[in-house]
Design a protein that fits this description.
heterodimer; A: alpha/beta; Rossmann fold; 2 domains; four-stranded antiparallel β-sheet; 8 helices; 31% helix; B: alpha+beta; Elongation Factor Tu (Ef-tu), domain 3; seven-stranded antiparallel β-sheet; six-stranded mixed β-sheet; globular
Chain lengths: 301, 417
């Protein structure tokens, strides 16, 4: 008999489509958490494939910190329109204004952690029972222990020591009222897989992933974008550099890479040669050795 | 590039974490910031050398206790293949985690400490790999450096393992490699210390094990996962049966049978966003359209017309119990089989397996967490299934506690009872 193996990308794609269809089949009100980053853009693409020729059977939810790269927002609106999906926006600014969240102060202030409040409120208000996210197990050590279907209690909390066993591809989405699931269809993808898939499928991305010139400053080994709401130390000075984003999050915590890569092919070459992980440039992970584990337990993405 | 999923069973003492760290490190899959973090942690913990095992550290509790508690997934790639490692703890109280990691693996690495040889734990790990139907077993005889890299040590362990394995799982694909994870012998680079061994490094085996026959390519099996109904003007009456192929090949024009109704029909098209396909096989996710308007929904199955799986309300299965609350004889549980949801009643416990001696215990048959047992179930709906040995998808079930919603057991269907 011949060789009937799929390529690794086709196998990962099939797995992700399977997971997305399980979500649509097992839950009443699923939602796709859309950050504007490449992983969530890939999720939208996979969702189109999973339900073709029907529309994607769930809305997109963006948690807006108010501290975004403007290009991301334009891209978000354009994509939602082109795939004919409903877009829901949860605003961190609103959570602060009504007193649900308190703005951090000081040099390292970020709205990254505050997103959890807005996210959990948005899930509860819309009665979403499954939130699909683009987190990958290769990103971070706490994420390496995630399930595809990750159970959350009525407070949105993750209990890493008491997770449901996940056997074969049988996903147990049973829950009580008020509880919900986080679902991660691209759990098994690496950063390289995502970029190779973007290349193979010709998926459109926001311009900030490619090289551009920007005002930046250097802090603790990471280049950060100089934006009006970014408080700087007196010793830090703004420089004009050719950079690109390796991950896209809130401006206040997204590290920029000095890079001249202006195509997906260039980026793949750059990643193949790089010696630093993707989240090595994420300021939000530098807070402690278990920063991600702690945020995830509270209900972070 | 193909994808290979493998599992490693073993404890810290066997050098499991060191082996995984070595594989990642020597295949240049460790990044500088990860290396820095491990260097910092090694110094802080007072290790004299770079502690490779720290690369696989996960949760805070695991760092504190220095053990793996849960399944952790690791990734690396070489120009030949992409690898997914299910890194599972090896102690007997974590059998359920081993079973979880083994459920999706193409290959299992069984680690043996060359100083101790084949011990009870080795039997247990090899048995679980075989029970979960892992097609390829790679036995790594580790810590050869502590036995002066002697061939006679390797040979005698190999002989011990084979005489056990021939009794328990004679047909299994098995390979043996003498290694030192600590020094890197035969992991990624061939060992200069063991010139008597020339059958390839661990990485070489992982890169070249043939995996194209690991799926069931014989029996046509397509469990319906979701029905796609666009209800748009363009696709007004469209009904696409979405699912992942669980066995065999499907083509447009194939005569098929629909279960449970046993109505016959024909495949019209295999649809994807990028156009129709002429063939679908495992593990592709596709949508099928049929010639006739048949009643078909999630949990039903499309199968070959002359190749129908077994149908029964009575299921006999080997289970691994995964919950602190023991199995209740005559208790009721929710059951999942492929995409079907049902309920079941535990009719009988045939035996509990002593997982260290592999003896069948028929007295005092309490099934506790991490136990392997053979049980009889009666389901509320008929299941259409194949024995697990034939098909890992249509032959597996999970049981769910209806009060807590927790997954309490993994089951491998043995035969139609």
């Amino acid at each position: 008999m011949g060789n009937y193996n799929l390529t690794h990308l086709k196998e990962l794609e099939s797995e992700a489509i399977y997971v997305l269809r399980e979500v649509a089949a097992q839950f009443e009100r699923p939602v796709l958490l859309f950050s504007g980053g490449k992983d969530s853009i890939v999720l939208v693409h996979l969702s189109l494939k999973a339900f073709y020729p029907a529309r994607i059977p769930f809305p997109l939810l963006h948690i807006d910190t108010g501290h975004n790269f403007p290009e991301t927002l334009e891209f978000r609106d354009r994509l939602a329109k082109s795939v004919n999906a409903r877009l829901i926006i949860g605003s961190v600014q609103e959570s602060i204004d009504i007193g649900r969240a308190v703005e951090e102060t000081g040099i390292n202030a970020s709205r990254n952690v505050l997103q959890t409040v807005t996210l959990l409120d948005a899930l509860e208000q819309n009665k979403f029972d499954a939130a699909i996210g683009g987190a990958r197990r290769d990103e971070e050590k706490a994420r390496a222990k995630e399930r595809f279907f990750s159970h959350r209690d009525e407070f949105g909390q993750w209990d890493p020591k008491n997770q449901r066993p996940e056997l074969w591809y049988m996903f147990n989405g049973k829950k009580r009222m008020g509880e919900h699931f986080r679902v991660f269809p691209i759990s098994n993808w690496t950063e390289m897989d995502v970029w190779q898939y973007i290349l193979a499928e010709n998926i459109d991305l926001p311009g900030i992933y490619f090289t551009h010139e920007r005002n930046v400053f250097f802090r603790d080994g990471v280049w950060l974008a100089a934006a009006p709401f970014m408080e700087m130390k007196p010793t830090e000075k703004v420089e004009f550099k050719r950079v690109r984003c390796r991950t896209v999050g809130d401006i206040s915590c997204t590290g920029l890479t000095l890079s001249c890569a202006d195509s997906v092919e260039d980026i793949i070459q750059e990643i193949a040669a790089t010696r630093v992980t993707e989240r090595g440039g994420r300021y939000d992970d530098k807070r402690s050795e278990a920063a991600m584990e702690d945020r995830k337990k509270e209900g972070y993405f | 590039m193909e994808l290979l999923r493998f599992t490693t069973a073993g404890s810290v003492d066997d050098g499991k974490s060191t082996l995984i760290g070595r594989l990642l490190y020597d295949s240049k899959s460790i990044f500088e910031d990860q290396l820095d973090a491990v260097k910092r942690a090694s110094v802080q913990k007072g290790s004299a050398h770079l502690n490779l095992a720290l690369f696989t550290d996960g949760l805070r509790a695991e760092r504190e206790q220095g053990i793996t508690i849960d399944v952790a997934y690791r990734y690396f790639a070489t120009p030949q293949r992409k690898f997914i490692i299910a890194d599972t703890p090896g102690h007997i109280q974590y059998t359920r985690n081993m079973v979880t990691g083994a459920s999706t693996a193409n290959a299992a690495i069984v680690l043996i400490d060359a100083r101790n040889g084949v011990i009870e734990q080795t039997h247990r790990h090899a048995f679980i790999a075989s029970l979960l139907g892992i097609p390829h077993i790679i036995v790594c005889i580790n810590k050869m450096d502590l036995m002066e890299y002697r061939e006679d040590v390797y040979k005698s362990i190999l002989y011990d393992f084979q005489s056990f394995a021939n009794k328990v799982f004679p047909a299994q694909d098995m390979r043996f490699i003498p290694i030192s994870a600590l020094h890197g012998d035969n992991v990624v680079k061939p060992s200069l210390n063991m010139p008597w061994y020339a059958d390839g490094t661990l990485l070489h085996h992982l890169e070249t094990i043939p995996i194209s026959q690991d799926h069931d390519l014989v029996h046509q099996r397509f469990p319906i996962q979701y029905v796609i109904r666009p209800e748009s003007d363009e696709f007004h009456d469209y009904r696409g049966y979405a699912g992942q192929v669980a066995g065999g090949f499907f083509h447009p024009g194939d005569k098929i049978m629909v279960l449970p109704s046993r109505i016959e029909s024909e495949i019209v098209s295999i649809d994807t966003l990028t156009g129709p396909l002429s063939e679908a096989h495992p593990p592709m996710s596709v949508a099928l359209t049929l010639k006739d308007d048949v009643d078909l929904s999630r949990g039903d199955m499309i199968v070959g017309i002359d190749d129908v799986p077994a149908e029964s309300y009575d299921i006999k299965a080997m289970i691994c119990w995964m919950n602190p609350k023991p199995l209740q004889l005559h208790g009721k549980y929710a059951l999942k089989h492929t995409t079907k949801d049902a309920r079941c009643f535990v009719q009988d416990i045939d035996y509990v397996l002593n997982i260290s001696t592999l003896e069948k215990v028929t007295q005092n048959k309490t099934v506790r967490m991490n136990d392997i047992a053979c049980i009889q179930l009666r389901t509320t709906k008929p299941l259409f299934f194949d024995p697990y040995k034939i098909n890992r998808i249509t032959g597996s079930i999970i049981l769910i506690d209806e009060a807590s919603n927790e997954t309490v057991a993994a089951g491998m269907i043995v035969l139609n009872s």
